[in-house]
# Entry
Amino acid sequence: MTLLMYCGHHKCATRWLVDILTDACNRVGLEFFEAHNAGMFGRDLASFLAQRPVDLLAYTNARHEFIDRLGDYRGFHVIRDPRDILVSAYFSHLNSHPTDGWSALEQHRQKLTACSEEEGLTLELDFIEDVFSALARWDYSRPQMLELKMERLVRDSYEGLIEVFLHLGLADPEDVPLEEELQRIAGRAQAVVEPDRPGSAAARRLQRVELLHIIHSHRFSKKAGGRHVGQEDSRSHYRRGEAGDWRHHFTPRLAASFAERYGKMLTDLGYERDEGWWRAAGPS
# Structure
């Protein structure tokens, strides 16, 4: 069987996507494995997978050099506006991210708590430099890898994730269109397909009604304890869930520093048309 794979990066909705993929794999009996970093597979992903029965791999801090050594696979890769990554990482590292086994974060958090937000965001630029490096060095032309922006997945979760599952071969392409399915289940929120026991239908394809149920069960408001997108809780892992939040936190000085280091990456990834965006940046 072709290896299925999700490649993500720190603060690019990895926990949300991992939960959805785990739920889907449990339904169809696929073996799921999540790797946070290269140490979890001995810095040799190909050898690790050859020795372990993994059907779907979630590589949540993906680096291109380990993907390049793989043979047959099909996957999807999710990125996010690097400025929103910076802001999200700052609040996560300041308040909510576990520090177990991560002594560098413990020390970093002490620095963040002792300085202003602008100073903390500037410190964060250095602390997550490896995330920006991974984004900049990624090969976005792999034909077997579906490239997606987190902003689209957050805005159009049903359409975007159904495209993902179709690409992975885990959704039935002959199933009824999404619009028709939505009409069919409108007003019948409880009438959903119950999950199969793990392993009971290995490698079968999910019907869209099942995917809709999975996606709905992992919606932001449920993860965030009833808050809706845009309602902020700075101490929650699901802090705000809104694209473009960097505009509320970037000062002119921080914007200039970010543009000097990563301005080209923003235009390369399509988040800005030119590198002069920072001149108009400032808290709204």
Observations:
- The CA atoms of residues 9 and 91 lie 16 Å apart.
